[in-house]
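queue> holo job accepted (flavin mononucleotide)
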Amino acid sequence: MPLPALFRDALRVPVIGSPMFLVSFPPLVTALCKAGVVGTFPHVNARPSAQLDAWLSDIAAELVAHRAAHPGAVVAPHGVNLVVHKSNPRFEPDLDIVVQHRVPFVITCLGHPGRVVDAVHSYGGTVFCDVTSADHARKSMDAGVDGLICVGAGAGGHASAQSSFSLVREIRRFWEGCLVLGGAINDGWQIRAAEVLGADLAYVGTRFLATQESNAQADYKQMVVDSTVADLVYTDRLSGVHANFLRASLQRHGIDVSQLPPKRPDMSSLADHGAKLWKDLWSAGHGVATIDDVPTVATLVDRMVDEYRQACALPPSPAVAR
Ligand SMILES: Cc1cc2nc3c(=O)[nH]c(=O)nc-3n(C[C@H](O)[C@H](O)[C@H](O)COP(=O)(O)O)c2cc1C
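queue> job finished
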């Protein structure tokens, strides 16, 4: 399956650190790239647009300096996640900034990626589109994207209810291009499993949320460590789209999702609880089941590399008759 040239021989383990609202800030992005996996952030984490401009300059400069100081190191490319939605007033100005900085990797979500593909391809950049279902994948592939990102059940943030096993194989029936799989991938065994399933790269969010360099508050990271899957709530009553949340963060604000109206036109009743979605009401995926520390990104990626190598060396099952 075609891996874009940007990622060929460019990573220590086939992983993209996925963009996370209020969590992926430049320290996490650069730590991921320096550790040898792709570092990304949502453009809206930088507020206002002038800050996006500054962040992109700083990230590029830091990575150039790191490459110069460590000529033998694998330093991965960085990327930006753009919300391509008509209601997003920052889309056009921020796309211009992305083009000015010739950002090597762009992830689109929530809208047709065509405009971004044209703009980013004009300077040789790579564009992946985040899709939530096979139907969505079919619509996006005609736009000329270089890869599709699908996120299966159990993911942090907005998550589909479809199992990764089903989703990847369904998309692979019609998409031969680069495919990325996300959803509860924390370790090298799972990264290898994603490849065996038919993905080229793994998309990892929640696991990187609980690292030293992430911008999540200390209690948020600790809650991820302390939680099990039974401590998550999968609901559309907070954002209007199904997402996984840490129940304890809702309880702190007296929110019981079963008491909220089924379809929420806005966030007004949350304001009654004095809580802001994502900032105070925290999301995490089924990955919480195997997260029990808050290491540095470098330590975590070293661990993933070891596990991935072990998983790649697995022999076929002894159950198979020779
Ligand atoms: C706290 C949090 C915030 C997120 N914010 C965004 C976002 O702003 N844009 C986006 O495309 N995906 C966002 N996601 C989804 C991730 O990019 C990714 O799809 C997901 O984390 C992968 O599943 P995992 O968390 O189980 O590893 C977010 C996820 C989390 C946990």
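queue> The chain has two domains: 5-216+293-312, 228-272.
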